[in-house]
Amino acid sequence: MEAIRLSNVSLWRRTQEEFSYDLKKTVLTILDGRYRKPGRKQVLAGVDLTIESGEKVGIVGSNGSGKSTLLKVICGILKPTTGEVHVRGAIAPLIELGAGFDSDLSLVDNIVLYGVLLGFSRREMRARVRPILEFADLAAYADVPVKTLSSGMTARLGFAIATDVPPDILILDEVLSVGDERFKTKCRSRLEQYWGENATVLVVSHDLPYIEQSCERVVWMNGGRVMRSGPPAEVIASYLHSIQTPAGAERG
Ligand SMILES: Nc1ncnc2c1ncn2[C@@H]1O[C@H](COP(=O)(O)OP(=O)(O)OP(=O)(O)O)[C@@H](O)[C@H]1O
């Protein structure tokens, strides 16, 4: 059974100049006749990808090749400009961990709020608070506002909440680089638990030995396109070969 299907998905995004948008500067450049329309860049180009339920898929590729963008389109954080995305099942997106917290609320209130947004009752979530805080090693911070945590601690809380209930589809964007060594080991063993179950797992990482060893299939992205998808050792070898060959496909 298919868990995820992308058909001819393309996405254009505005380039960074637009983020330094400044009305006065824009008016002056128009008056000067120097105004240029903000640029748009294609970040995904005609992606066709089907992932079967229960498959463990690794996504590799150089910086800026579109890996995180692909995950965000699958989670519904970004809408493709053209093409279609179909997802069957509940997704736990471990992307930008902790981005959704209300920084003025306490850890306990954020945990309950997050669960309620996912459809759990308040009472169910109150029962989950303790194990979540314990997994994150943050029981001592239960009642302080989230803004007083360090960024690593916030990411730990995000990971602990998002993986508390096993999802149908787990999406991991470099989360294994979160936290200190002790927490990384805990993350890996929790993920291995899911790995053995029915969950569909999509993981983006630059840790190629880890991807090769833990995934059943690897997708190599370059310039917003899927270059190759197939057995981990073969796809990783093609990716590495392209990096070592300057005239090869890897042109970012
Ligand atoms: N918020 C944004 N607005 C506009 N363009 C963006 C934004 N975020 C990323 N991009 C662009 O989208 C393209 C793909 O970026 P993406 O983050 O998907 O790459 P990646 O393969 O995950 O890279 P990395 O390995 O560095 O994490 C890049 O050209 C990047 O500049």
Automatic annotation (TrEMBL):
GO terms for molecular function: ATP binding. Residues 28-248 form the ABC transporter domain. Keywords: ATP-binding, Nucleotide-binding, Transport. InterPro entries: AAA+_ATPase (IPR003593), ABC_transporter-like_ATP-bd (IPR003439), ABC_transpr_TagH-like (IPR015860), Bact_Polysacc_Export_ATP-bd (IPR050683), P-loop_NTPase (IPR027417). Belongs to the ABC transporter superfamily. PANTHER family: TEICHOIC ACIDS EXPORT ATP-BINDING PROTEIN TAGH. This is ABC transporter ATP-binding protein. The lineage of its organism: Bacteria, Bacillati, Cyanobacteriota, Cyanophyceae, Gloeobacterales.
